[in-house]
Specification:
With 247 residues, the protein is α/β, with parallel strands linked by helices. It has one domain: Rossmann fold, CATH 3.40.50.12500. The chain is built from ten helices and eight strands. Strand 1, helix 1 and strand 2 form a beta-alpha-beta unit. The longest helix is centred in the last third of the chain and has 14 residues. The protein is globular.
Length: 247
Protein backbone atom coordinates (compact mmCIF):
# COMPACT_ATOMS: atom_id res chain seq x y z
CA UNK A 1 0.00 0.00 0.00
CA UNK A 2 1.37 3.37 -1.01
CA UNK A 3 1.49 6.14 1.55
CA UNK A 4 1.15 9.79 0.61
CA UNK A 5 3.44 12.20 2.35
CA UNK A 6 1.72 15.42 3.40
CA UNK A 7 3.41 18.58 4.52
CA UNK A 8 0.89 20.68 6.39
CA UNK A 9 2.10 24.21 7.08
CA UNK A 10 2.41 24.96 10.78
CA UNK A 11 0.56 28.24 10.22
CA UNK A 12 -2.70 26.40 9.54
CA UNK A 13 -4.73 26.28 12.73
CA UNK A 14 -7.98 24.48 13.50
CA UNK A 15 -11.16 26.34 12.51
CA UNK A 16 -12.51 28.36 15.39
CA UNK A 17 -15.03 31.14 15.97
CA UNK A 18 -15.08 34.06 18.34
CA UNK A 19 -18.87 33.94 18.07
CA UNK A 20 -21.73 32.79 15.86
CA UNK A 21 -24.93 34.77 15.24
CA UNK A 22 -28.26 33.24 14.29
CA UNK A 23 -30.72 35.10 12.10
CA UNK A 24 -34.34 34.29 11.21
CA UNK A 25 -35.74 36.16 8.22
CA UNK A 26 -38.94 36.12 6.15
CA UNK A 27 -38.34 33.83 3.19
CA UNK A 28 -38.42 36.72 0.68
CA UNK A 29 -35.79 38.76 2.53
CA UNK A 30 -32.54 39.14 0.56
CA UNK A 31 -31.01 42.13 2.36
CA UNK A 32 -30.61 41.48 6.08
CA UNK A 33 -28.23 38.52 5.80
CA UNK A 34 -26.04 40.47 3.38
CA UNK A 35 -25.88 43.55 5.64
CA UNK A 36 -25.05 41.43 8.69
CA UNK A 37 -22.32 39.63 6.72
CA UNK A 38 -20.78 42.96 5.73
CA UNK A 39 -20.64 44.03 9.38
CA UNK A 40 -19.37 40.83 10.99
CA UNK A 41 -15.70 40.84 12.05
CA UNK A 42 -13.23 38.07 11.26
CA UNK A 43 -13.52 34.83 13.23
CA UNK A 44 -17.30 35.13 13.45
CA UNK A 45 -20.11 33.69 11.36
CA UNK A 46 -23.76 34.12 10.48
CA UNK A 47 -26.25 31.25 10.31
CA UNK A 48 -29.74 31.85 8.95
CA UNK A 49 -33.14 30.24 9.05
CA UNK A 50 -36.29 31.29 7.16
CA UNK A 51 -40.03 31.52 7.78
CA UNK A 52 -42.38 31.35 4.81
CA UNK A 53 -43.49 34.83 3.77
CA UNK A 54 -44.10 36.12 0.24
CA UNK A 55 -46.48 39.04 0.74
CA UNK A 56 -47.27 41.66 3.37
CA UNK A 57 -50.74 41.29 4.81
CA UNK A 58 -51.80 41.68 8.41
CA UNK A 59 -52.52 37.96 8.63
CA UNK A 60 -49.22 36.81 7.08
CA UNK A 61 -47.17 39.18 9.24
CA UNK A 62 -49.00 38.15 12.40
CA UNK A 63 -48.40 34.45 11.73
CA UNK A 64 -44.62 34.71 11.53
CA UNK A 65 -44.15 35.61 15.18
CA UNK A 66 -45.89 32.36 16.14
CA UNK A 67 -43.33 30.40 14.07
CA UNK A 68 -40.34 32.08 15.71
CA UNK A 69 -39.51 29.35 18.21
CA UNK A 70 -39.50 26.54 15.64
CA UNK A 71 -37.07 28.46 13.43
CA UNK A 72 -34.93 29.39 16.44
CA UNK A 73 -34.77 25.74 17.50
CA UNK A 74 -33.05 24.84 14.22
CA UNK A 75 -30.47 27.58 14.76
CA UNK A 76 -29.85 26.31 18.28
CA UNK A 77 -28.52 23.11 16.68
CA UNK A 78 -25.65 25.24 15.31
CA UNK A 79 -24.85 26.41 18.86
CA UNK A 80 -25.12 30.08 17.95
CA UNK A 81 -24.45 32.68 20.64
CA UNK A 82 -27.57 34.78 19.98
CA UNK A 83 -30.56 34.72 17.65
CA UNK A 84 -32.47 37.57 16.00
CA UNK A 85 -35.95 37.33 14.51
CA UNK A 86 -35.32 39.79 11.68
CA UNK A 87 -38.77 41.01 10.70
CA UNK A 88 -39.92 44.43 11.84
CA UNK A 89 -43.46 44.17 10.43
CA UNK A 90 -44.42 41.03 12.35
CA UNK A 91 -44.02 42.87 15.64
CA UNK A 92 -45.69 46.03 14.39
CA UNK A 93 -49.05 44.43 13.50
CA UNK A 94 -49.67 42.61 16.77
CA UNK A 95 -52.40 44.09 18.98
CA UNK A 96 -50.09 43.66 21.98
CA UNK A 97 -47.04 45.81 21.23
CA UNK A 98 -44.96 43.73 23.66
CA UNK A 99 -45.82 40.40 22.04
CA UNK A 100 -42.59 40.46 20.01
CA UNK A 101 -40.54 40.64 23.19
CA UNK A 102 -42.68 37.99 24.91
CA UNK A 103 -42.21 35.48 22.07
CA UNK A 104 -38.47 36.17 21.90
CA UNK A 105 -38.14 35.75 25.67
CA UNK A 106 -40.15 32.51 25.54
CA UNK A 107 -37.86 31.08 22.84
CA UNK A 108 -34.80 32.21 24.76
CA UNK A 109 -35.98 30.50 27.94
CA UNK A 110 -36.78 27.31 26.04
CA UNK A 111 -33.47 27.14 24.15
CA UNK A 112 -31.07 28.67 26.65
CA UNK A 113 -29.85 31.14 24.00
CA UNK A 114 -30.56 34.92 23.91
CA UNK A 115 -33.29 35.62 21.33
CA UNK A 116 -34.38 39.09 20.21
CA UNK A 117 -36.97 40.51 17.82
CA UNK A 118 -36.13 43.38 15.46
CA UNK A 119 -39.21 45.45 16.32
CA UNK A 120 -38.31 45.37 20.01
CA UNK A 121 -34.64 46.05 19.24
CA UNK A 122 -35.61 49.26 17.46
CA UNK A 123 -37.30 50.60 20.60
CA UNK A 124 -34.40 49.43 22.79
CA UNK A 125 -32.01 51.35 20.52
CA UNK A 126 -34.11 54.51 20.85
CA UNK A 127 -34.23 54.12 24.62
CA UNK A 128 -30.44 53.65 24.68
CA UNK A 129 -30.02 56.97 22.86
CA UNK A 130 -32.73 58.60 25.04
CA UNK A 131 -34.85 59.37 21.99
CA UNK A 132 -38.57 60.00 22.38
CA UNK A 133 -39.46 61.73 19.08
CA UNK A 134 -38.59 60.39 15.62
CA UNK A 135 -39.15 61.03 11.96
CA UNK A 136 -39.79 57.77 10.12
CA UNK A 137 -39.08 56.54 6.59
CA UNK A 138 -40.01 53.10 5.25
CA UNK A 139 -40.77 51.22 2.05
CA UNK A 140 -44.21 50.33 3.43
CA UNK A 141 -47.71 50.83 2.13
CA UNK A 142 -49.88 53.26 4.16
CA UNK A 143 -51.65 50.55 6.19
CA UNK A 144 -48.36 49.15 7.49
CA UNK A 145 -47.04 52.63 8.24
CA UNK A 146 -50.15 53.13 10.36
CA UNK A 147 -49.25 50.03 12.37
CA UNK A 148 -45.67 51.29 12.65
CA UNK A 149 -46.81 54.62 14.04
CA UNK A 150 -49.18 52.97 16.53
CA UNK A 151 -46.50 50.53 17.66
CA UNK A 152 -43.97 53.26 18.38
CA UNK A 153 -46.55 55.49 20.04
CA UNK A 154 -47.64 52.70 22.37
CA UNK A 155 -44.00 51.97 23.18
CA UNK A 156 -43.53 55.61 24.23
CA UNK A 157 -42.02 57.03 21.03
CA UNK A 158 -43.74 59.98 19.32
CA UNK A 159 -43.68 59.85 15.50
CA UNK A 160 -43.33 63.45 14.33
CA UNK A 161 -43.56 62.59 10.61
CA UNK A 162 -43.73 59.44 8.50
CA UNK A 163 -43.54 58.54 4.81
CA UNK A 164 -43.15 55.37 2.77
CA UNK A 165 -42.60 54.28 -0.81
CA UNK A 166 -45.91 52.40 -0.79
CA UNK A 167 -44.40 49.18 -2.11
CA UNK A 168 -43.86 45.55 -1.15
CA UNK A 169 -40.79 45.36 -3.37
CA UNK A 170 -38.65 46.49 -0.46
CA UNK A 171 -35.32 45.04 -1.52
CA UNK A 172 -35.29 46.85 -4.86
CA UNK A 173 -35.49 50.33 -3.36
CA UNK A 174 -32.07 51.90 -3.89
CA UNK A 175 -30.06 53.46 -1.04
CA UNK A 176 -30.09 56.76 -2.96
CA UNK A 177 -33.91 56.75 -3.09
CA UNK A 178 -34.06 55.84 0.59
CA UNK A 179 -31.66 58.63 1.53
CA UNK A 180 -33.85 61.13 -0.33
CA UNK A 181 -37.00 59.79 1.36
CA UNK A 182 -35.38 59.98 4.80
CA UNK A 183 -34.24 63.57 4.21
CA UNK A 184 -37.76 64.51 3.13
CA UNK A 185 -39.38 63.36 6.41
CA UNK A 186 -37.03 65.13 8.80
CA UNK A 187 -38.72 67.90 10.77
CA UNK A 188 -37.70 70.27 13.55
CA UNK A 189 -39.37 68.21 16.29
CA UNK A 190 -37.48 65.00 15.58
CA UNK A 191 -34.63 63.87 17.81
CA UNK A 192 -33.67 61.05 15.43
CA UNK A 193 -34.52 59.36 12.14
CA UNK A 194 -35.82 55.81 12.02
CA UNK A 195 -35.73 53.78 8.79
CA UNK A 196 -37.88 50.67 9.09
CA UNK A 197 -37.69 47.24 7.39
CA UNK A 198 -34.94 44.60 7.35
CA UNK A 199 -35.43 43.90 3.63
CA UNK A 200 -34.42 47.48 2.88
CA UNK A 201 -30.84 48.56 2.10
CA UNK A 202 -29.75 51.12 4.70
CA UNK A 203 -26.17 50.29 5.64
CA UNK A 204 -24.58 52.70 3.16
CA UNK A 205 -26.69 55.71 4.14
CA UNK A 206 -26.64 55.73 7.95
CA UNK A 207 -23.53 57.85 8.39
CA UNK A 208 -24.15 60.16 5.36
CA UNK A 209 -27.64 60.82 6.71
CA UNK A 210 -26.30 61.53 10.20
CA UNK A 211 -23.71 63.90 8.73
CA UNK A 212 -26.34 65.71 6.66
CA UNK A 213 -28.88 66.17 9.46
CA UNK A 214 -26.90 66.02 12.69
CA UNK A 215 -29.45 63.50 13.98
CA UNK A 216 -28.88 59.90 15.07
CA UNK A 217 -30.14 57.39 12.51
CA UNK A 218 -31.62 54.07 13.57
CA UNK A 219 -32.51 51.35 11.08
CA UNK A 220 -34.14 47.97 11.61
CA UNK A 221 -31.05 45.98 10.64
CA UNK A 222 -28.60 48.24 12.46
CA UNK A 223 -30.69 48.17 15.68
CA UNK A 224 -30.87 44.36 15.50
CA UNK A 225 -27.12 44.08 15.04
CA UNK A 226 -26.53 46.54 17.89
CA UNK A 227 -28.78 44.63 20.30
CA UNK A 228 -27.04 41.38 19.44
CA UNK A 229 -23.69 43.10 20.01
CA UNK A 230 -24.85 44.06 23.50
CA UNK A 231 -25.60 40.40 24.19
CA UNK A 232 -22.26 39.28 22.78
CA UNK A 233 -20.40 41.79 24.97
CA UNK A 234 -21.60 39.85 27.98
CA UNK A 235 -19.51 36.98 26.65
CA UNK A 236 -16.45 39.26 26.34
CA UNK A 237 -16.79 39.69 22.58
CA UNK A 238 -17.29 43.11 21.03
CA UNK A 239 -18.61 43.98 17.58
CA UNK A 240 -18.82 47.36 15.93
CA UNK A 241 -21.37 48.97 13.62
CA UNK A 242 -22.37 52.17 11.88
CA UNK A 243 -23.75 55.40 13.29
CA UNK A 244 -24.14 57.11 16.64
CA UNK A 245 -25.94 54.10 18.04
CA UNK A 246 -22.62 52.22 18.18
CA UNK A 247 -20.44 55.19 19.12
Amino acid sequence: MNTVATNIPESISPLSWDFKLGLIVPSWNTVMEREFQRLLPAHSSLHASRIFHNQDTEESLMEMLFKLEDAATLLAHAKVDAICFGCTGSGLVQEDVYLDRKFADKASLSLGIPVIATSDAVVKAMEHLRISRVSVASPYEPWLNSHLKRYLNERGIVVTSIAGFGTQDHSNCSPKETLELALSVVDSQAEAIFISCTNFRTLEIIEPLENATGLPVITSTQASYWMMSELIKKSNHSIQGPGKLFS
